## 1
Amino acid sequence: MSGPPVTSPAEAAPAAGRRRRVAARTRVDFWFDLVLLLGFTVAYSYGFTGIAIHEWLGLGLGLALLLHLTLHWDWVIRTTRRLVSPRGHDKVIWLVNLALLFAMTLCVLSGILISRVALPYLGIYPLGGPFWERMHALSAEVTLGLVPVHVALRWRWILRVGRRLLAWRPAGRSR
Amino acid sequence: MRFLRHLAAVVVLVAVVVLAGLAWNHFAGGGLPGEAQATGKRSIAPGRGPGIVVLQPGAKAGPGGPHGPVVVHPGPMNLGLSSMLDPVNLAVLRHTVVIEAVVIALVVMIDVSRRLWRQERRAREVTGRAPARRR
């Protein structure tokens, strides 16, 4: 969500290769983030998925979270450095993202520690306990509240990229 | 190389959060709201074979945490795809989607009104300054 803008100065550069590269990265960000959102929505709906899919999807989301953060690490550094200079919108996004990092990490961690299907299938038998069960429920609820906020704070970027990616283009015509 | 460097930084950050969670459990264990109701007195019996969750003597099969007291038997894994395809369970997914959609709509509305208000304020400032410049 916090990836490079669609039309950055770099993109405006005449070098076609550079332009293609930025567009490809934007495309990856858009589709990957969409898959993450859908994955989280399905994983949260435990009654819909059943325990096995819930757990495997949760583990996958944990790995995807690492990848998502890695892809946007530049943004994390840039915004953290700029935190001292007052710019309200970025500060809000930064705080939401930090809270989401805590909530999602604790959710995946507690999910691993109370796993009843996925980890036992791999030969690991975690001894969870009531603390981790409660932590899993709490952090999942907090994550459910924060994920849509995280998405919505980037609605202009999503709209801009979505329009470009999903726009119907007649065959044979270039952009 | 750059990707790996960033990945290492992310892993360190996530490890810090994980350690914070483990420390929370260690130092303030039992400090979460509603934890008393969440306990189902479950334990994994040592030497009982993999994946079997048993209830301790005297313990009722109550709510047992967020997912209920699920007893998992060893053997071939059942992904539970039949329950996923059951239209009855679609209500759960719909509920999640509705919550997300409502929150997204709220945040977008707040953001749009904030932007409109700022634009209006800027426009007012510009029109306020214009006569002063003429003087």
Note: The CA atoms of residues 113 and 127 of chain A lie 6 Å apart.
## 2
Amino acid sequence: MNSLTISSPEQSGLLHLANLNMDYAKSMGIAPERSTPKIIAADLNRLEVESLNVWYGETQALYDISLNIPQNQVTALIGPSGCGKSTFLRCLNRMNDVIETCRIEGQIWFDDTDINGSQIDVVGLRARIGMVFQKPNPFPKSIYENVAYGPRIHGLASNREDLDRIVMESLEQARLFDEVKDRLNAPGTSLSGGQQQRLCIARAIAVKPEVILMDEPCSALDPIATAGIEALIGDLKDAYTIVMVTHSMQQAARVSQKTAYFHMGQLVETGTTDQVFAEPVDARTRDYITGRIG
Amino acid sequence: MTDTRNPAHLRERHRSEKIFRFAGLGAITLAIAFLGTLLVSITLSGYSAFQQTRIQLDITLPADPESASYQDLVKQALRATFPDVSQRRSKKELYALVSTGAAYEVHQFARANPARAGTELEIWLTASDNVDMLIKGKVLVDDEAAVRRLSDRQISWIEQLTTANRLEKQFNSNFFSNGDSREPEVSGIAAALAGSFFSLIICLILAFPLGVMAAIYLEEFAPKTWLTSLIEVNINNLAAVPSIVFGLLGLAIFLNLFELPRSAPLVGGMVLALMTMPTIIITGRASLKAVPPSIREAALAIGASKVQSVFHHVLPLAMPGVLTGTIIGMARAIGETAPLLMIGMVAFIVDVPKGILDPATALPVQVFLWADSPERAFEERTAATIIILLVFLMAMNLVAVILRRKFETRW
């Protein structure tokens, strides 16, 4: 995993370069095969989305979205309800496959492969791109079993000690271990809301993903639990690439490095969080951030 | 601030709520009353069948149990008990006190106790149904001779036997160990019980896995196309098809086409499985649908395959509902008569079936058969069979409740 980090102004410049390069490739008719040699800046992007269109039946939910997800950063997706940010997030690990009427066009590059391609194994993909949901959804099993399930089905542990270690490490990484170490056999559903959400994060971490998608992970939690999760997200970004959908402007400003503003299925504005919040370019972004709409 | 709402309207709302409550309470009371009447009347007319009048006779067992005439032995014993009976006509009346099955009982006893051969023993033998009815008070001494089917002489013998403590009501083991018989006093439900048991086992083995798999496929895997909705509608239709139609189907396909044996629990179970499967599919789908989608998403999001998410997470949570549906379906199957009539399980079965291919009958069919018989003693046996059937139904429903409680998951 590339742990190289660079400061944001430089990076945005490089991103711009990368996008220019992509545009050039498209104009030459060689994308999406990607025969052009990769430029260095592209390595900083864990996921690259190109002209993504999504339909639910006849209704188009996303219009021509192109967005890069930088590695080891938190990318926040903001926008009013129904703007398509959750749909976008669910495209990144093909969770929209569950919805039968959903149709997707466009490319999402992950390690030089299009995850919408037919040769992609969705099961393997979801092990690498984990997800945490809006409402904490632990399995109605023990805390231990909740975390151990993923490693077990993916065969990550060779023996019981190995599995114990993975469970312990995952719970520690999710800052939950100290609270539950005495009751690993208690049902996961017996925990408080914030603890349950951290359990879900531990469950996602346990399969060693590279990217974690979070769909409004704090919307069902009280402010104290929210603060806990936010601090946790801050820690996790050093090891993982995080994409989170949030309704809270403050939260996006607090935890993310990159922000993308969605409106009516379109990507209106994207940039570093500082930039988007300090000097939004688009009037709609400005209105939303200042609380005039949304 | 003044309340501008109309107080009369509020009163009206309270009144209609009260009326609804009373109506509901009334409906439940009425239902319980009907159920109570049914249970009480069946119990009252059926409990006496669990006892049977027996007569004690002194019988000398023959040296060789296989060569003797047991009919004669029983007659001798009767004549020895009442030595002053000499006329041919009154002898016949005397012999009619014990069941025609009594000789068979002595034979069985002699076979089971070869060490006792040649010795004189006091043996309790089944009395005839007419004696039994008099002792149980179903007919009275004051009734006309044609109604009570006993002569005055026979009644005086019965009184003598009673005072000698040689005639009493005992537990009716015949009822549980024998098959059907033309003689009520030796008839039993063993053949019907075994037939019902084998049929239900076959039904469960076929309907449960097929029904659950179909429910899982339709609910979790099948694409929602016009074809699947057509299948769904037709499964609902199938659940509403009158059961006798399934019997006709079984007759046409299992008996005529596949040439499976007639009256066999195998075929009965297959027909009942056809009938039960739609119920299992429908309740199974309903309980799968009740599992929150967040559980499926949670499993899929950590890279579980569709099959893993269903079998590791969704199905275990849906299991209480699936099992309840199955047991309710089975409870319906155990009480089903019509389809079994069509495939020949309405036969007069004397031998208790030993396997799924032996001719058999079923409990509800036995009720149907006995309800048709003219002998008075069959009346109480019909009611007693219904009691047994109801006990099984209640036990099954109890199991359903216990399973639901046991596997219920708190969210």
Note: The domain at 9-289 of chain A is CATH 3.40.50.300 (Rossmann fold).
